[in-house]
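Notebook entry, structure prediction.
Reason for the run: the old model in the group folder had no record of what sequence produced it. Starting over properly, with the input documented here first.
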Amino acid sequence: MKKISAVLDGLKFSEATMKYAIRMAADTNALLTGVFPESYLYHSFHLFDMVGNQGISKVKLKHLLEKDQATRHNAIAIFKEHCKRMEVDCVIHNDKTFPLEDLIKESIYSDLLMIGGHETMNNINEAAPTTFIDNLLSETQCPVMVVPSKYQDIQKVVLLYDGSPSSVFAVKMFNYLLPLLRDLETEVIYVSGEDNPKDLPENKLIREFIRCHCPLAKYIILSGDPDEQIVAYLKNEKLNPLVVLGAYQRGVVSRWFRSSMADKLISQLAVPLFITHYR
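New structure, fully documented this time:
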């Protein structure tokens, strides 16, 4: 992997996203782009903050805008300082148009996009995954790592498999981009609708493929509802996993790797997710 783009809100700066991005860039010797999107419609303040004794105060508005700009500049300075400390090569992108469009364009020219599942790019707080994250994940042009609001070292890799090309493609992209994580404990999880599942779909082929990349991988076969079973299984995980899954895209038909799976993982688990599209 040669280029990581970390998406950071200068007004609600995520230290966790910065740490995940810098650690990943340092381990892979990749260029790290700090993407600090801005919108003319996004400020930290509300309409009533600008109101004085005679209506909207130009003085108050000017002060509030300057304060926001200082906050954004400070966030960029913190990011640069941490990159310097870790000897990570970094650049800053600070476009001032429409954040979603900018990030989709950014993803075309990145190997990996990294963003916190809580990001909104506005001054409204939402539960993760936010509307902004949903829209970004459905349109992004490269793999995305959605990270939690608290940083933890990655200690394990969990590959979600359902027999679809999208789930295999996710494993491919993960191994191509992050071979440094191959040495971690790895599990392949499959959920069958049968009461007594016997084996994986395309069992011989998937085991052969996984063995080439993760020869010591363990296989976990569960039965029941995939959303419920995977969340319950991961909630009992003792190590801090990175979860790999595919097909977060509008119009993609998959037996169970659909948007709701990623939504449930983002909302119910504080773990990083590696998500890819299959086209």
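Summary: Confidence is low (pLDDT under 50) at residues 248-258.
The old model has been moved to the deprecated folder.
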